[in-house]
Amino acid sequence: MVWQKQGASFLQNKKVSFVILLTAVVFNLIFGFVRNPVHVENTLSWIGYDYPMGFAFWGALTGGAYFINIFQLYENCGYTGKIGTISLYAAPFMAVIVVLINDWGWEGTVHLTAALAYIAMNGISLAAFFLKNFTKHISYKITLFIIAATLVGMIITYFAADKSGLLEIAPLLGGLILLLLANHTKIYPVTDRAESDEKTRDGKRAAKLAMYLGMFGADDFYLGRYPQGAGHLLMTYTGALICAVRFIGMGSINDIKGENAAVFLAVGLSVLGGSAAWAIYNGAVLEKTE
Length: 290
Prior knowledge:
Layout: H1 14-31, H2 44-50, H3 52-77, H4 82-100, H5 106-132, H6 138-160, H7 165-184, H8 203-213, H9 218-222, H10 226-243, H11 249-253, H12 258-289
């Protein structure tokens, strides 16, 4: 079937992943060190208080760099484990919370939890790749040990001392550099390739799912197009949070109201409108294909 052969060519493009990864490294080096990261109040979130647009760009760029490059690692080594895959797809949803929900009280707790979860999920999904290739070369064993030690050390340091920007930026940059070595050099040789596991699906049922639940990626998930489904769900999820940002997180911090609130609402509704258009398009294609 035509819809079953639609691959995630964008996510598999090495040039795209390389450019996004290097861009993320440069931006994190500059944005993360705008202020002295050793100080307690110089975390990425604190910088984001004063520069919300830069913080939003950081979230999108860094989240994209991690997801695309880890996705390619999984494709190259044929990894299909549930723990790593779930962590990979859940991480971007945590990134949206980190960027948009950031304040005192319950919002601060949500923000902190999401930030720790985001770093941990990317660490787990990376560790899954090195665990998959553990017996191939000593470099995999050494790197897996470093990843585990970093995650444990980060958690211990966080609860034992005041948080700082360095506690956030160091593991993020370390992960990006590790992805650069693993995905774009020959330091970690990968010989296995992912095998196709396509299943026959009912096109009419997929079209109905696109019509009624398409904004949540239901049709893509049903057809086994998990990257597209996750991206569609993330788009709807992000649009809904942007609509609510006047009342929570960055909107509350910056006292967004009046025209600024209307602009945020326009952005959120536009994103939701794009998600709806995506669902309509998928449904139309599936109807014609059938």
